[in-house]
Amino acid sequence: MPPLFVIDAHALLALPPLCTDENKIHSFFDRLTEEVEANNLTFPSLVLQDCRKFAEGELLYTWVKAVAAHRRISRVDNSWQEEVLTECEELADIDDDCEQTAVLVASMALMLIDTGRDVCVVTEDRFDLPNRMCLHDACGVLGIDVMSALEFLQNLGMDQFL
Fold first, then answer.
1. pLDDT digit string (tens) for 4-34?
2. Which domain holds residue 27?
3. How many domains does the chain have?
């Protein structure tokens, strides 16, 4: 069984530019839809909101909004968020009291690992910010496999789109 990929908004926003042939962009997103429908790709609902903020009116946001209904897993129990923040509190921006996408992505990954599934986080959040640790490094602390958007597409065998 392939790993279950938990993708964040940073990686989703990086995907369309990786498809080098504009004539294949719809096939590109069709292929990603197949992964969501097969329960091999998911994301927390807050990722949808982040994509709206940065890509509303673009094909990516239209796709994310449409495919969100096909996810089998979209929510994360609070206990997993508590576990992430206990093990890696630097991931959260302490000045932001709203739910934070990076925390939810890491929490979802841990929750899914607990079910026995191989899980990998896909992110382009690779540089620490002054107010929080990047998701890439937090995954290392939490023992979660992590890869870039490009590595994700290569892992899926989507080289024909690159």
1. 999 999 999 999 999 999 899 999 999 999 9
2. 4-161
3. 1
